[in-house]
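Assess this one:

_____
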Amino acid sequence: MSETKVELTKEEKLAKEQNLIKEYHNQVIQGLMGPINEFYMADDISEIMINGPSEIFIERGGKLVNTGKSFKSEKELISLSRAILQFVGKRLIKEDLSVEARMPDGSRVHVLQSPAARPGLSIAIRKFPADRVTMRTLVDKFKSMPAEAEEFMIAAMQHHMNIIVSGGTGSGKTTMLNALSEIIVSTERVIVIEDATELQFPEDHHVLQFETVKPDREGLGGIDIRELLRASLRMRPDRVIVGECRSGEAIDMVQAMNTGHAGSMSTVHSNSPIDCLARLETLCLMSEVDIPLVALQRQLASAINVIIQVSRYRGIRRVTEISEVVNYDISTGEYELQPLFVLEPHDTGPGGLMLTWTGKTPILGGNLSIDREALTKNW
């Protein structure tokens, strides 16, 4: 009897080809990793830092460790960098000293060339957990927050609150954004904009991912986050997620939040919720849009509903505060915030601290359909 051949659909053929390409690049890259391959494969290592060919550090359990290992020469590092960049369609050229990329498994990579990197070509690889991080993972496994905070975040996402995740470098902003995105229902069209793709979504979700492209040597062909954000608003998104606001694109993000794209999210580098708003002011002003500061502040207060502050404290990445943006008081020139959860000393908390409910009732954008008493009943 002759075997019956199963015809693959066009989508299945494309997925198969993409997996083969990814596997090929993965094998090439791993073949060039040399002394860092064992660290790249280890599940308990979150970051690999290569400071030139002669110095390699890793982060394990929130602590930096000098591995004592090294590459034989900078040529080996250059070959590794070229292979990594090739996977995302980029090149290692002397005119571009700083380049962002990602590995086939989604790990974030940043390459800095000499002479900007004094020890020689340097690479930082930010690894992500092999399994998708969910809200339950943050509560049960990582102890990043209590179940009450999870309940509030679920309610905020389900009712399309605009959320900013604030924190420092390596504090877990992208991890939190990934966990929050799990709550989005599959029927919503989500457009994600990043410098290097990091956010992961279930396959059944309607997600369109955009990635920035640097111009070529003649300055042609590039597109930045701000241009991608503007383009996304013409493509009927239910939600827009910007991986990180770093510059003038913040003003476009705020305007999107204010004009029918509720439930949008982004991250910002800042140390507290109030600092987050001040940082966003600065980023918006970098757009060169001629807008009075008071008008900008009122727009920010209107656009942003919730700020989730994350930090790395005593080796633990955790949520340290969740606040709602209530209003902007023109008479005092200050934002009115309502802290819902704050980090306080607690005997049974990880590291002697626990994220604790302040007792205040969530506003959740003034949505009258939300039963706030039922939400906070067991807090």
Summary: The two ends are 66 Å apart (CA to CA). The chain has a mean pLDDT of 90. DSSP finds eleven helices and 15 strands in the chain. The longest strand covers residues 316-329.
